Amino acid sequence: MSEQDAAEEATTSDDGDADVDSEAAPDLEEAPEDVDTDEIDLDDDADEELVERVAEGDPEDIARELAALRSRNDALEDEVEELESEADELEEKLKRKQAEFQNYKKRMDKRREEEKQRATEDLVSRILDVRDNLERALDQDEDTDIRGGVESTLRQLDDVLDAENVDVIDPDPGEDVDPTQHQVLANVESEEEPGAIADVHRPGYEMAEKVLREAQVTVSKEE
């Protein structure tokens, strides 16, 4: 074999080996199709960065930093516990205040009801005295003049009503009609001016500027 043939055989052998190795070796530059290269695990990157920092940093500095972080974490936990305890205390105070307010409201309602009953009892007690006087007047003999006793009893009743801030609505004939205090029963012929009150059929009453009962009146006819 000549030197040229030996060289060509060697070249052919080398190329063949190269082709086989090239086909057998995987393409390292191509990523697998099922891997999404856009999704990057940031936690892994952060962990790697932390590992590099710890590996390259001074052990004493790292220890001091860790100790500071632990101390800060403990302080934060204490602060959270304190805030939670304060929140629980405020919630308990709020519940107590709500209960106290409900009890206060019940006491005030009960007191107002008792005061109302006492006020009514006092009024009834004074009216009973007036009723007793009327019965005494009726118990007199038929021939006895009871007018004086009735007038006295009426004055007594007026005193009771006056004490309760009750005023009698009893307009005089000739006065103008007040729709807020007078109830017109009929238009009648009278000597009064047309449209004026002719007579009072029944007096009315008002208490603390509130009309309890309108006075019933007749009005002079228009000509």
From TrEMBL:
UniProtKB keywords: Chaperone, Coiled coil, Cytoplasm, Stress response
Subcellular location field: Cytoplasm
InterPro entries on file: GrpE (IPR000740), GrpE_CC (IPR013805), GrpE_head (IPR009012)
Disordered, as annotated region: 1-48
Xref: CDD domains: GrpE (cd00446)
Domain of life, per lineage: Archaea
Coiled coil: 66-114
Function: Participates actively in the response to hyperosmotic and heat shock by preventing the aggregation of stress-denatured proteins, in association with DnaK and GrpE. It is the nucleotide exchange factor for DnaK and may function as a thermosensor. Unfolded proteins bind initially to DnaJ; upon interaction with the DnaJ-bound protein, DnaK hydrolyzes its bound ATP, resulting in the formation of a stable complex. GrpE releases ADP from DnaK; ATP binding to DnaK triggers the release of the substrate protein, thus completing the reaction cycle.
Subunit record text: Homodimer.
Family matches, as PANTHER family: GRPE PROTEIN, GRPE PROTEIN HOMOLOG, MITOCHONDRIAL
Family: Belongs to the GrpE family.
Protein name per Swiss-Prot or TrEMBL: Protein GrpE
Species this protein is from: Haloarcula onubensis
Lineage: Archaea, Methanobacteriati, Methanobacteriota, Stenosarchaea group, Halobacteria
Name of the coding gene: grpE
